[in-house]
Structures are given as C-alpha cells and as structure tokens.
Amino acid sequence: MRHGKKFNHLSRTASHRKAMLSNMASSLIQHKRITTTVAKAKALRKYVEPLITKAKDDTTHSRRVVFSYLQDKESVTTLFNEVAEKVASRPGGYTRIIKTNNRLGDNADMCIIELVDYNELLLEDAKPAAKKSRRSRRGGKKATEAAPAAVEATAEVVEEAPVVEDAVVEEEVTEEAPVSEAEAATDESSEEASTEEESSDEEEKAE
Prior knowledge:
The chain folds into two domains: about 15-125, CATH 3.90.1030.10; about 140-205. Helix content is about 65%, strand content about 10%. It has seven helices and three strands. The chain has helices at about 15-30, 40-55, 60-70, 75-85, 120-125, 140-175, 180-205; strands at about 35, 95-100, 110-115. A three-stranded antiparallel β-sheet has the order 1-3-2. Strand 2 and strand 3 form a beta hairpin. Helix 1 crosses helix 2, helix 1 (about 15-30) packs across helix 4 (about 75-85) and helix 3 packs across helix 4. The longest helix has about 35 residues, at about 140-175.
C-alpha cells in the first residue's frame, strides 16, 4: 500500500527518477531555462530550490552536499560562483514555470522552467517607470521669474486704461455742452423776439 505517499513518481523507479532530476537540475543551472512537461517541472522545482538555498553558504560542506545531488563538478561551480551571487537577495522562489502548448505526440502539458533572476525582459517590466520631467519652452525658472513682472505690467496698463477713457468721455461731453436744453430755450426766445420786432416794423410801415 502507498498510503501517505503523495509525491509524483513520474512513472519511474526511485533510481531512475533521482538520476533524471539530477540531470534536469544540472541542465537548468547551466542553461538557466529548459523545456519539459509540467509534472516534471513541478518535481524539479522541489528538487533544485533547496540546492540553490544551500549554495548561498559557500563552504566545503555545502559544496559536497550539493555535489551529492548533482554529480557534476561544472554545475556545482556555476551554482556557487554565478547563480548564488545572482539570487543572494532573494529569500526563495528561485524558479518560474511558464506553461506552453501541449506536446503533439501524447498531448502532454508542456512548460518552460527558468531561473527568475535571469529573465531580463520580465525584470525590466517589473521595474517602476521613471517619472518623466516635462520641459516647457518658456525657459523654466526665468519664465517663472518673469511671469510676475508681466502680470504687474498688464495690471498697470489695465489700471491706466479707464483713466484715458474717462478723459476722452469728458472731452466729448465738453464739446457737446453748448448744445443743451437751456441754450436751446434761449435760442427759441431770441427767435420769437426777433419775429415780434419784425412784425412791429411791418405795422409801422403800413400806417
């Protein structure tokens, strides 16, 4: 009975499974990205991430423990000298699984498993966008300093403009002043007096 044995056997014996995961881990460390099935990738993630954590402590004991799993001197050297420095600030989650299309032969779920810190495209997308400083064509600080002076000049012009208009209005009023109602009445009375005088002169001539 296999009660409590929940890990995936991957349809292989223990020795075959161990050799396969060791080779896949070495390939992942060397190439930083490999293509495999989703089931194998999940098993590989549990296998390789503890080794990467062990590589952060660069001691002889750690190297011997990792070598007992990988059985490859080049992979151990790459892991301790290159990968460990790259993932030093990361507390875990060193790998990423990206699912792809199914395999043509048996329709198996395929994926790409990669080391997170070596995917430059996704790292650039994760960086916050730099704030763009908008430049104006008015000269920056000089324009801001000149702006109050321009506002004061326009205010002075606005204040002086009504005075000029009032002066023009007063001149127009003074020019039109002779033609007033009182003068018009005096003109009418003078005209009436002249007509009366003319009529009196005509009567005297008639007599």
